[in-house]
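Could you help me review a protein record that somebody else here produced? This is what I was given.
***
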Amino acid sequence: MSIESEATATAGTGDERLATFWVPMQQKSLLVPQVAIAEVVAKATLQAVPDAPVWLLGRLDWRGQSLPVLSYEAANGQTQAPDSPGVRLAIFNTLSDGAALPFWALRIQGIPRLLRLSDAEVREDSLARCTRAERLAVITQLGKASIPDLDYLESLAASIGITSAERAD
């Protein structure tokens, strides 16, 4: 599967060179369509969510909205290492049709890098085994990365019952 077809399915674009973000994570980097990320903010104090699943780090007050903040590593059943000094929160646009939750957040380990990639510059990593929150493992000019399953991550965020209308305390 090509990055173009993967991004088209996720973001609805068919450009020959796709604008993507290379997002640093704890164990690997993610490759996501540029339209998926609304903003990157500094790490903030999160509001705890009682009896939260391990992948839910808490809630973030962002522009008057209470957003769920997910751990990509925990969503994949991986052990979380200590945060890097450059830890940030990426605010993701919900890309699913009819979603009640327009935004959610993901803890990342630095500042995403904007790349414009063509199909020829991305190839599937056939030796990698994808985890639950990954659609495809790829190799690019910057190295190995994963294309996340944004539908799955969005469903996790939506499953906790925090909506965009809910105001932070």
The first helix runs from residue 3 to 11. The two ends are 44 Å apart (CA to CA).
